[in-house]
Amino acid sequence: MARNTEAVCRKCRREGVKLSLKGSRCDGEKCAFNRRSNAPGMHGARRGKLTDYGIHLREKQKVKNYYGVLEKQFRKYFDLASRFKGNTADNLMGLLERRLDNIVYRLGFGASRPQSRQWVTHGHIQVNGRRVDIPSYLVRQGDTITVKNKPKSKKAVKTVIDDGLRDVPDFLYRDNAEIPKGVVMRLPTAEDITLPVQTALIVELCSK
């Protein structure tokens, strides 16, 4: 399986915004973005003004890094979003937000999206009572996401929940029972996206 192995702190510095890729570390003093917010590389602090194409590209790369998807995957999401009725940009962000690894993160089961992706691929997460180990699985309204009823799985997730890193968004419901679970109350909309991004620029770039 292909994956991006670049140092995650460089991604935040390149995009000029915190992508919360290291969980609680991103909120502490050790956060590289807080110490050096300029772009990575020896000439990062002296980079000139972006071109029009560069501005469009950075918005797309920001979203890809935020949700942890590669170019081929992103193109598939865009093609699917463009076939749906309504605003293509909102459809695209809605699809990305429905990814199982993102839902696990938004429920507070994982400290970061990379960790949530790991929970899924290692079989710690179930959807409607069945094990799903595909991070890109798209949840639906009414789906129930539970932690596997195993001591190792419950302990790992409980530790993150107890840290209370973030609030659960309105489109999800979380039950902090002995076996943590969450319910997709409705599909996410553009208002539920927390990343500051100009989605219209992404549509313009990908439509060319």
Care to describe what's here?
- A five-stranded antiparallel beta sheet has the order 2-1-3-5-4.
- It has nine helices and five strands.
- The chain starts with 7 loop residues before the first helix and ends with a helix.
- β1 (125-127) and β2 (130-131) form a beta hairpin.
- The model has no long low-confidence stretch (mean pLDDT 84).
- α5 crosses α9 (199-206) and α6 packs across α7.
- With 208 residues, the protein is α+β, with helices and mostly antiparallel strands.
- It has two domains: 8-96 and 195-206, Ribosomal Protein S4 Delta 41, Chain A, domain 1, CATH 1.10.1050.10; 99-184, Structural Genomics Hypothetical 15.5 Kd Protein In mrcA-pckA Intergenic Region, Chain A (Roll).
Topology (elements, then pairings):
Blueprint: H1 8-15, H2 32-35, H3 52-67, H4 71-83, H5 88-97, H6 100-106, H7 113-121, E1 125-127, E2 130-131, E3 144-147, H8 151-163, E4 172-175, E5 181-184, H9 199-206
Antiparallel strand pairs: 1-2, 1-3, 3-5, 4-5
Helix pairs in contact: 3-9, 4-5, 5-9, 6-7
Summarize, please.
The protein has 208 residues and is an alpha+beta fold. 42% of the residues lie in helices and 8% in strands.
